Amino acid sequence: MSKSDILARIRNSLIDVTQDDPVLDVPVDWQYGQATAVAEPIELFIERVIDYKATVVRAASEKDVPRLVAEGLAQAQATSLVVPAGVDPAWVAQAAQAGVELVQDDPPLSHQRLNEISAVITASVVGMAETGTIALDHRGDQGRRELSLVPDMHVCVIRTDQIVTDVPQAMARLAPSLRQHQPVTWISGPSATSDIELSRVEGVHGPRTLHVIVVG
Amino acid sequence: MTTTALPHPTRRLTPAPPPGDLLDTPKFPKSVKRYLGNSQLRANLRHATGTIRAKRARVTAELSNWEQLRQAGEAIKNRTARHLDVYLEQLEANLIANGAQVHWASTAAEANRIVVDLVKAKGVSEVVKVKSMVTQEIELNEALEAAGVAAWETDLAELIVQLGHDRPSHILVPAIHRNRSEVREIFLQEMKLYGRAAPKDLSDNPPDLAGAARAHLREKFMRAKVGISGANFMVADSGTLVVVESEGNGRMCLTLPETLISVVGIEKTVPTLEDLEVFLQLLPRSSTGERMNPYTSMWTGVTPGDGPQEVHVVLVDNGRTKVLADPIGRQALRCIRCSACMNICPVYERVGGHAYGSVYPGPIGAILTPQLRGTASAIDQSLPYASSLCGACADVCPVRIPIPELLVHMRHRVVEERKRKHPGLERTIMKVGGWIMGRGSRFGAVEKLAGKARGILRKDKLGPMPWPASPWTNARDLPLPPAQSFRDWWKSGQADNPFVSSQPAEEARP
Amino acid sequence: MSASSQKVVALFATCISDLMYPNTPKAVVALLERLGCRVEFPTAQTCCGQMFTNTGYYPEALGSVRAYVRAFSKYEHIVAPSGSCVGSVREQHPMLAASSRDKGLQRAVEEVVARTWDITEFLTDVLQVEDVGAYFPHKVTYHPTCHSVRVAKVGDRPYRLLNKVRGLTLLPLEDSDQCCGFGGTFSIKNPDMSTAMATAKARHVANSGAEYLVTADNACLMNIGGVLSRGRSGVKTIHLAEILATTEPEE
Q1: Which among A177, B19, B296, C225 could disulfide-bond with A186, CB atoms 3.0 to 4.6 Å apart, if both were Cys?
Q2: Residue of B27, B390, B492 to mutate, interface with C, max C Cβ within 10 Å
């Protein structure tokens, strides 16, 4: 059995370790889940997301979201939009009136069908100011992972109360979702590569347009 | 650049890698001679490493607690390594509880057999892959090819390497040795043989090249039934795997196929979910020099209704438990494969990754590879010496691996192992030298002798000389010692110190 | 300064300076005496043993470690004009002593290591001087050698000392933090790589416009100087201690 072989080899290799408690054996001098010193997290978040060549618009309140969704889609000339089941129908009402075809993921869309749809709209769970990162935990208002991956445009709505300073605070917010076995995706700008001569190119396999609506 | 012609396009399912085994790579100094001569390669590398160095320096300086993060990263990885058995069992239990199937592989061959069997059981002839170092280490693609399964690399650089019948030369940017016109050439020649052709009017603009890769791979993603990945981290206390990437090809492979097989080295384990907050700051800033990489995927076994419904994790040893047995050498297992050490390395910068004869090149490769593979081959014996010990790598390592210290340690291991087999000239020189330096009087006597060289040769420096002086004198003059050493001057009463009369003795130096 | 408060400094000349560049330790003697110290040169000293250690020959390096202990154990201040040799004493001697399993040697090494200084550290930290009264009316550029910076960790001390030298113009050096490619036996075992690195360094030095290349380490200076000399660049090399020891000629 390779499992028992490997574990036996590990134990043989670690004969110098005499303290059985890992935490006592190697202390880690780190305060987990702390906020970092960021003066204006929301402004910084927006600045950093824009830095990645995403587009960011601000909604003063939830009421502005339908208009901003419609405008964003129109700008990108998106003609169809996947709407996960938990997304507030009000968000997409104006876009629908403007002629954008709304597509539900029920029954689940095939890869091919999804590949023909221009855009997807999702909510999000947390935003990280320092890094300009948005995290999804793929619950009802964000949909399964594939929905926010295959269409070429991702419209992402985030509330200001979801924006935290940095990675540690975000991890603290996301840990419960992960412990409930939800998958989590971190998104920092549109898909990108630097594989050719280290020159950054936005848009390879993931959505080439990331349109972020900050509410509040 | 010309790509090697495909020898048997009908027999192989994927482009053939270059012939030969990495282990047969000549010893490092020989390869250096070869690659130093390639000025295009040097220009490509210099440009790329220079760019990424500057980016790394900028984004790491942004964080006021960068040093604390490094220390935390070091400690967490040490904690994991020193209790790896406990964490692996915890990881396995959590993976199984969440619907994943866990496999253990002692060797590369065993890992390949497990993956091949899993893929064959699905009845597919093609898989899509996320960039993964460990699958390169075990040469999984060739094992799948031999079993009649085409394994497609989907990371842009890996695709360039695969289509170019080439080997990766960098762990983060595997095609760092290629420039845009070489990439264009490869895409035009090869894409059409394996799927959607590159547009005939393809330019060498990076966005156009990336666009060709997007179109070429999209059809493969759409139909793939099995995805193969590695993982940057495996979280023991939750069973969560993490893949950090940029292009979205990782997300494609991790979510679209029905079956996902993740092949991961056992040292990739971290104890808790909270520990990720340390590594997800250290890794992107150290590797691509960004505040955050575009995409990070975390998944925990099977999520009903979302992504692959059959999830396997293959835990690979392949020499890692051997590395663990050396308390100094095991520090190399902290590596999170960021590549900062190779980007900063003045040696790597001049020859690139191929000279190292290992999937792990650069400073980390020079300490990790001879530990994983042993030091039987010429290349593995020479790797610990492939460094001037300048220490730039240790400064940038996000988990504070003291690479120069490990290089010296590995040199000692090489010397000790060689000593048992054949002593050799070098050891004799070192023994004599060690004896001389054991007493001040002996060194003094040698100095007296050396001081006669100028008088005998009637010059104060040597120009080009035959071996054994040639390695030095081919490019630089070698000064000869002055007639009187400092020791002699001191003993003879310290007369006429040139600095006491304020006359700099600059003329004394040839 | 009274005789009782006078600092007695043991000079660790280092093998390369002792044999090849005796002016450097002479400069250290002149400089430290000018600053009120009494300098001694224990003749039992040899070298730091780095050429053995860094090539993987630990037992062969132990003779140097023992010689170092024998020569310097009784001194309160041990000063060397080389960040690399000081770094080796600090970082490698304890490791080598441990590998010998000689407890007495381990203790002796531990004590002597704590009293070993690079000349730049000794000036700024122990004597607490930056202006040592030097005069050097030339354009110079400084290469911060790898082991001074990363092993001995002398930081910006050499720059602070150079900036106080009267008449001196310090010119910037491109890619100054890059290794010159010496690396001890690296220059023999990987000659082509070493040469490529040394050539690049020499090119930056030549482009700096300086008359002198300064380092605080003669090994690197020998390496870069060898290329400068072969290329007839006209740039001279000089150890930092020699600049600091040079004063304005009296009329």
Answers
A1: B296
A2: B390
Contact B359, B103 (CB under 8 A): no
Q: At B324, is the secondary structure helix, strand, or coil?
A: helix
Q: Which of C219, C71, C89 shows the shortest CA–CA distance to B443?
A: C71
B195/B201 Cα distance (integer angstroms): 17
Class at the top of the CATH hierarchy for domain C8-126? mainly alpha
Query: What is the 8-class DSSP label of residue B138?
Result: T
Residues in chain C with CB shorter than 8 Å from the CB of B497 are: 26, 29-30
Query: Is the Cβ–Cβ distance between C242 and C215 less than 8 Å?
Result: no
| Cα–Cα distances in angstroms (integers) from residue B439 to residues B432, C42, C47, C67, in the given order | 12, 12, 10, 6
Q: Is the dihedral of CA B264, B266, B268, B269 positive or negative?
A: positive
CA distance A154 to B339: 31
Pairing of strands A119-122, B126-129: unpaired
What domains does chain A contain, in order, with CATH numbers? 41-215 (3.40.50.10420)
**Interchain contact, B29 vs C189, CB within 8 Å:** yes
CATH for B259: 3.40.50.10420
Q: What is the mean pLDDT of residues C106-111?
A: 97
In the listed set B297, B320, B343, which residue is the last one of a domain according to the structure? B320
ipTM here: 0.97
B181 → chain A, closest CA residue: A196
Topology annotation, domain C139-245: Rossmann fold (3.40.50)
Which residues on neighbouring strands pair with residue A104, listed in sequence order?
Answer: A83
Tens of pLDDT, residue by residue over A150-185, are: 999 999 999 999 999 999 999 999 999 999 999 999
Range of the domain at B496: 425-508
Distance CA C74, CA C69 (A): 9
Segment B111-145, tens digit of pLDDT: 999 999 999 999 999 999 999 999 999 999 999 99
Touch test A–C: 3 Cβ pairs or more under 8 Å: no
- Last residue of some domain: B320, B349, B383? B320
Positions in chain A short of pLDDT 50: none
